[in-house]
Amino acid sequence: MKKLITLPNFFLLVIFCIPFYLIKISLFDVPTNVLELFAMITIILTITQYKKQLVEELFKLPKIFVFSCLLIIFGILLSIFFNNNQLTGLGILKGWFIIPMFFSFAVYIILTSAADIEKIFTSIYLSAAAVATVAIFYKFFGITTYDNRLSAFYLSPNQLAMYLAPGIFFGLYFLLKAILQKDSFKKLFLHAVLLIIIFISLYYTYSYAAWIAIFISLIFTIFILAPFKKQFFIFTSIILICGIFLFISQKDSEKMTSLLDFSSRSSIASRATIWKVSTRLLKDNIIVGIGPGNFQSSYLAMQKYYPPYLEWAVPQPHNIFLAFWLQAGFLGFIGFLFLLFFIFTTLWQQLKGKKNAALTAPLLGFFIYSILHGLVDTTYWKNDLAFLFWICIFLIIAIKKSVNKKTGLHTHMK
């Protein structure tokens, strides 16, 4: 029992429980949620146990990464200060940046082996599978949106899809590893079943943007990793065939009909209007933005300049780059671009080195997916997505550190 009740295992539990951010609570009259509370407990415990190591590792972090983080935080603070709704903005800074950053850094402190990193992969993967299982029960009992899309306990089908998608990359990692290592049929069957559950749940979200982003990121990742053209051709053919069948199954659906309707009432027209409004807001607030948490009110205030909106409840601008510039200001946006530069250059270095290519692959898939889907949705500005984003960044840094050491990683996570 004592071996189970350890700080590393508590970290794994918190990651598995990321969807618990939906359970709202108040702590000393400060609004928070169960996920943040768990994360803060683990951060405090890590400080008490690894105080000296925390300081040492903090100063060893890549300078461009630290610079990016500081730019983002400073940009958000400026945007909060020069705009209205400061308390909401500070809450967003706390819940979507500060706590996820520090929690992920604490995870990084105890990540000292490939096995440790795989345990984090497992927690993310199993969390997605658990959410997918619950979502399937929602579908079974006919609890869907007005247009028959699956959202489960999330506010929208797209939010559900964005949480499930990372589970596919980490699930495929374990399935392929089990196949290559010729593991037992039981283990292969388990991974296949879990992935099928995630795919089924994702299918019923009818989030086409998520589907396309996943397919493209898988193809690109395979292109980078596949040592032979024949392997690349086989894997990409399978992915493309699956994609074609998925979209054929939707040819007569209400959502596909709406998507292909290029009239002023189509879903594409709705997104176009949101981006037009966002661009206009950006022109008027190019330096400090509109402040985090202010997009919905700013969007509605712009209605007089446009035809009647097709969508009224729009808390985010459906584009990750517009979201950062509008809510973190110009400095925050530049910091985000620097951060992406760091992420992808570091991933490329690890893949080029081959030593940790397999371990790096699902992280590459995750970040390619996040950017691709982020072009038409906001794949960051939410509690669960923010935690996943920063955890995966620090996993990359952990892999980078292991390569630089050359001697490999020793382990605390036992």
What does this entry look like structurally?
Helices cover 71% and strands 2% of the residues. The chain has a domain at 1-111 and 267-406. The chain has helices spanning 7-16, 34-49, 51-60, 63-81, 86-110, 114-140, 157-180, 185-203, 208-225, 229-248, 254-260, 267-284, 295-301, 320-353, 357-374, 383-405, and strands spanning 24-27, 30-33. Helix 7 runs antiparallel to helix 8. The protein starts with 6 loop residues before the first helix and ends in a 9-residue tail after the last helix. The model is unreliable at 407-414 (pLDDT under 50). A hairpin with a 2-residue loop joins strand 1 and strand 2. It is mainly α.
Strand order in space, largest sheet: 1-2
Q: How much β-strand is present in the residues?
A: under 5%
- The string of secondary-structure elements, in order, is HEEHHHHHHHHHHHHHHH
Number of contiguous helices: 16
Radius of gyration: 21 Å
Mean pLDDT: 88
Please give a handful of descriptors for the protein shown:
414 residues; mainly alpha; 16 helices; disordered C terminus
Summarize this structure briefly:
The chain is mainly alpha-helical.
Give the SSE map:
Elements: H1 7-16, E1 24-27, E2 30-33, H2 34-49, H3 51-60, H4 63-81, H5 86-110, H6 114-140, H7 157-180, H8 185-203, H9 208-225, H10 229-248, H11 254-260, H12 267-284, H13 295-301, H14 320-353, H15 357-374, H16 383-405
Antiparallel strand pairs: 1-2
